[in-house]
Amino acid sequence: MSSSENIEELLHNKIEELEAENKELKRSQAFLERELQKFSTLVVQSPVSISITDKYGNIEYVNPQFTKLTGYQLEEVVGKNHRILKTNHTPKETYKELWETILSGKTWQGEFLNKREDGTTFWESATISPIISNNGEIAHFLAVKINITEQKKVQQALKESEKRFKTAIESNLDAIYLLKYLQNDNNEIIDFIIEELNGNAVLEIGMSSQKEAIGKSILEIFPMENNQGFFEQYKIVCETGMPLEGEFQAAITNQTVGWYYHQVVPMDDGIAIFNRNISGRKQIEQELVTAKEEAERANLVKSEFIANISHEIRTPMNVILGFSEILKDKLSHKPEYTDYFEGILNSGKNLLNLINDILDLSKIEAGRLQIRESATNIKSLLTEIKQVFFMNANQKSIEFPIEIPHDFPECVLIDEARLRQILFNLIGNAIKFTDRGYVKVSIEHWQLEPESGRINFDVCVKDSGIGIEDKEIALIFEPFRQRESQNIKKYGGTGLGLSISKRLAEALNGSIEVKSTLGNGSEFTVHFKNISVQQTETKEDISLSYNEIEFENATILIVDDIQSNRNIFKAYLHKYNLEILEASNGIEALEMFEQHQLDLIIMDIYMPQMNGDEAAKKLKENPKYKSIPIIAQTVSSKIEIMPQCFDTIMQKPVSKKDLINILMKHLPYSLKSQNKAEHNSLLNNLNQFKTNISKEILWESVERLKTLLPAHKQVETFISMPEIRGFASEVGDIARKYKIAPLTDYSQQLKTASKNYDIRKIVNLLKEFPVIIEVLSE
C-alpha cells in the first residue's frame, strides 16, 4: 500500500472518530440541556425561596418564591446583598457563625426574622451552602429558605399556653400531682412516680422543693397502710379510664387531720390528682347545719307560740262574736243596735282573718301545711265568691263579669279551701284597689291531656285599678310588705294575703304571675298544672237560709268546760225543735249518755279531767253509741287531720250559719211551712191558669218560656243583678203577652229580690223556673 493510501485511510478513520465524538458530544449536550431545564423548572416552581450569590454575598439570582415572599422583584435585588432583608432581631454572632461556616466550605442551617419590602416581618428557616468551582475555590453560595412564620406563631402560642398552664397550676389552691405508673413484666401497675407537682402539693407532702419530690414513689410518700385504699383506686382509674372524685378525712404527712376533696383524672401513661383542703368549708357546713337546727327550733317555738296565742284569742272571740250575733238577732227591730253589732261582728271577723293568715304563714314556713284534695266545682266556687263580693263591686259601680268556657270540666280534684283562699285574696284585692272600670275573673288556656285525664288551666283576675310599679311587683309577695306608695289609711291590709296566696298556689302545683302598669290596672294569673278531672262533685250545695230550716225532734249534748261557750250554742238553737243538754268535761258526757237518749254530741276537744277525744273514743268503741254523730269543736289550729272518733270538726268561733249547716248534715230537717206554702201557691195558681186557656196558647207560651232556658242557666250559674233583672223582664213580657198572672207575680218577685240583693231569695226563685215550665207542659 502506498503512502498516499495510508494517509487517506488514517484520515478516514480520524474523521469517523471525530464524527463519533461529535455525536456523543451532542447527546451529552442534549442531556445537559434537559437536566438544566429540569433544574430551572424546579427552581422556578419551587415552593421554597432560593437565591444564588457570588462569593461576596451579592445576589445573582432569586426564584419567584423569593419574590412572592419578600415583595422584591429579581431586577430589584440583583447585585444587592441579603442585608436588605435584615432586621435587628438576629444577633451579630449568628451572622459571624454563618460566614465562618460557609467560607470553610461547610453548610450552615439556622433561622432569621427578616423583613419584606413593605416592612412587615416573617420567619425563615435557611440552609446556605457554598458552590465549589473546578479549581476547588468557592464560586457561589446557594441559599434555600422556608417560610416558618406560622410554625413560629404556633410555637409561641404553645409557649405562652404552657406558661399560662404552669402559672395556673402554681396559683391553683389545689395540691396538684402528675403521676406516671410503673408496670411489671405482666403489665400490672406496681407503683406511681411523681413527674410534676405544684407548690401546694410540695407543702402538702412536707417536702422542701419540687425538685426533691419529682421522681419519688407515691408509696414512699403515702405508705400502703396509710393511703386508705387510694393506690388500688388509682389503678382502677388507669385501667378503666374513668375519673374518680370524693371527700375523705385524713392527716397527710405531718399535717393535722382535715377534710379533703379528692379528684383523680386518667392520662395517657398515668393520672393527675387534685387535692383540695375543704376543712374550712366543712366547718361552715357544720355551722350552717347547727344554725338551721337552731332556726327550726326557733321556728317551732314561734309556731307553738302563735298556736297558743291563737287559742287564747279564739276563746274570748268565740264568746264575743257568738253573743254579738245573738243580740243582733234579738234587737233586729232596733236598727241603731243592729249597726253596732254589725260593727263588732265585722271587726271580729277581720281579726280572725288576720289570725288565720298568720297561722297559715306559720304552717307554711314550718312545712306543716297539709293539702286535702276533694272534687271541686270551680264554676260554683266562683259563683259563690261573686255573691260575696258583688255588693262591694256594685257600690263602686264596677263591672264584675266571670267568664268560664262552656266545656270546662264540671269538677276537678283540688283543695277547695285553699283555692277559695287564693281567689278571695286576689279578687278582694282587685275590688279594693279598683275605683272605676271593671274586675274580670276568667278561666283561660285550659287544656285536657286525654291519656292522663288531667288538665292545665289558668285562673285570671284582671282589673282596671291603680296598678303596680315594676320594682314593687316582687315586694308585694313578701310577708308583711306592701307597696311603698300605698295609702295605708285608705286601703288598709297587713301585707299577708298575696304572700300566702303565692305559697298556697305552689302547694297546689301552681304559680302566680303578675302583669301590671302603674295607673292602668293589674292582671294576676294563677297557673295550675296536672290537675285531675273528677266526674262528680262531693260538695253538698246548701243554699237555704238557716231561718228556713225546721229540724225534727232531737236531743243534742253540748260538752264544753266553758259555760259561755255552751250558752252560745243554746242561744243559737233555742228557736229550733231541739232539746239541749250540757256537760263540762268528758266524764260528765259519758254519764249523760247513760241517762239520756242522744241524737248528736258537740264535743270540745281540750277539757279538764277527760279530753273530748278520749270521751269520743270511748263512745265510738261502744256498739250502743257508735252510730251517734260527734262534732268536735276546738280553738286550736294544730288539728290538721280529723281524729277517727269524730264525724266532723269545726273551729271556733262558730257562727250560727256554720253550726246549722253542720247539723243539717247529721239531723233530719224540712223547709218551713211558709216556703212550702209559697211553692204550693205558685203551683196551684199555675194549674188554675191552665184550666182557663186554650191548648194552643198554652203550648205557645211554654215554647216561648223554653227559649229562656239558656239565659236562665247563665244567671243561675253567675249571679249578676243586671242580667237577673233582664231575665225577669223577659219572663214578664211573656207573662203579659199570654196573660199568665202567676208568672207576672214571679217576674216581679225576682226583680224585687235583685234590687234588694236578696241572694237567698234569688236562688230559690231561679230554682222554680224549670218547675214552672214543667207544670205548664203537663
Which tags fit this structure?
single chain; 778 residues; alpha+beta; 5-stranded antiparallel sheet; elongated
- Overall pLDDT, averaged? 79
Structural class determined from secondary elements: alpha+beta
Total number of helical segments?
Answer: 26
Regions with little confidence, pLDDT below 50 for 5+ residues: 487-492, 537-544, 637-641
Explain what you see.
The strands form 5 sheets. Strands 11, 12, 13, 14, 15, 16 and 17 form a 7-stranded mixed β-sheet that branches. Strands 2-1-5-4-3 form a 5-stranded antiparallel β-sheet, with helices on both faces. A 5-stranded antiparallel β-sheet has the order 7-6-10-9-8, with helices on both faces. The chain is α+β, with helices and mostly antiparallel strands. It is elongated and about 180 Å long.
Gist?
This protein has 778 residues and is of the alpha+beta class. It is 49% helix and 21% strand. Mean pLDDT is 79; it is low at 487-492, 537-544 and 637-641.
What order do the helices and strands come in, and which of them pair?
Layout (H helix, E strand, L loop, with lengths): L2 H43 L3 E6 L4 E4 L1 H7 L3 H4 L14 H12 L4 E8 L5 E12 L5 E10 L1 H23 L3 E9 L5 E9 L1 H6 L5 H4 L4 H4 L8 H11 L3 E7 L7 E9 L3 E8 L1 H52 L4 H32 L7 E3 L1 H18 L6 E2 L7 E4 L1 H17 L6 E11 L4 E10 L6 H4 L14 H4 L5 H11 L2 E7 L5 E13 L14 E3 L2 E6 L3 H11 L4 E6 L2 H10 L4 E5 L7 H10 L8 E5 L13 E4 L4 H11 L2 E3 L1 H18 L4 H12 L2 H9 L3 H18 L2 H15 L3 H19 L1
Parallel strand pairs: 12-14, 19-20, 19-21, 21-22, 22-23
Antiparallel strand pairs: 1-2, 1-5, 3-4, 4-5, 6-7, 6-10, 8-9, 9-10, 11-13, 13-17, 14-15, 15-17, 16-17, 18-24
Helix pairs in contact: 10-11, 10-17, 11-16, 12-13, 13-16, 18-19, 21-25, 21-26, 22-24, 23-26, 24-25, 25-26
